[in-house]
Amino acid sequence: MTSSAVVPSVREMRLYPVQVARAVAISPHLRRVTVTGAELTGFPFAGPDQRVKLMLPHPGEDILRFDGATTIPEFLALPVDTRPIMRTYTVRHHRPAAAELDIDFALHGDPAHAGPASRWATTARPGDPAALYGPAASYAPPADTQWQLIAGDESALPAVAAILERRPDRVAAQALIEVPDTDDRQPLGRCGTIVSWFSRDGEPAHESRRLLDAVRDLTLPAGPGYVWLAGESGVVTALRRHLVNDRGLDRDRITFTGYWRHGHAEN
């Protein structure tokens, strides 16, 4: 994952043991898994696009082996065949009073060829063990921001939704969202938010130019703005390059995060 990020202090990022409470499909390509754990009552808020490292047992196992590891470098130092599977996901909702947290998973194609986290989300059942490490966040509009542009694919949809829900009323916002098909669209935003959806209709996400073309065709408002971009790494990098090189936006007013990269797995 690449990012221009603002993160909580190290002491706020820690391990949270959890288990699955329930899992439901919210669209053809999105599945919401709700996890619960007593320590989630104290889970801190890092920002609307807060993300966590989701740690999962290996297929066929029902335990997570940490062997005393409490930090990411310590986790990565464990033997690869025994350490938990680790992937990064965005928090969609956190309900401290209920000790619950929702994570929305983008499901890509045939489950037999999906990544380990997508497979886990597809088959998750109440009681299945997991752990969260975090949170961290990147969304950080400057105080003088008058308008915002939010853009991403379905992997960024939970963060986009959370950002728009917390958008200050005084700041105009426009969101550009690419999803696999029209049935993956969701009600988003608040009054004053313009949301544009783009469906790939079978085209591979890493080959799609829909977001890049939409941003190129966009007339940006006058005044100081802020741009938040997330999704496939190559796409968001191209978007940032266009905004900086062709539009003249200050790179410090753009947050971009590669949530995933075609052909590469997160280690």
Estimated share of beta-strand residues: 25-35%
Q: State the distance separating the first and last CA atoms.
A: 10 Å
Number of domains: 2
Count up the helices: 5
Number of strands: 11
Low-confidence regions? 2-11
Mean pLDDT over all positions: 90
Write down the secondary-structure element order: EEEHEEHEEHEEHEHE
Description:
The chain is α/β, with parallel strands linked by helices. The chain has two domains: 10-136, Elongation Factor Tu (Ef-tu), domain 3 (Beta Barrel); 147-260, Nucleotide-binding domain of ferredoxin-NADP reductase (FNR) module (Rossmann fold). It is built from five helices and eleven strands. The strands form two sheets. Strands 1-2-5-4-3-6 form a six-stranded antiparallel beta barrel. A five-stranded parallel beta sheet has the order 9-8-7-10-11, sandwiched between helices. α3 links the parallel β7 and β8 (172-179). Mean pLDDT is 90; it is low at 2-11.
Summarize the structure.
By secondary structure, this protein is of the alpha/beta class. The chain has helices spanning 72-77, 116-123, 157-165, 210-217, 233-246, and strands at 14-27, 30-36, 51-56, 85-95, 100-106, 129-136, 147-152, 172-179, 193-199, 225-232, 254-260.
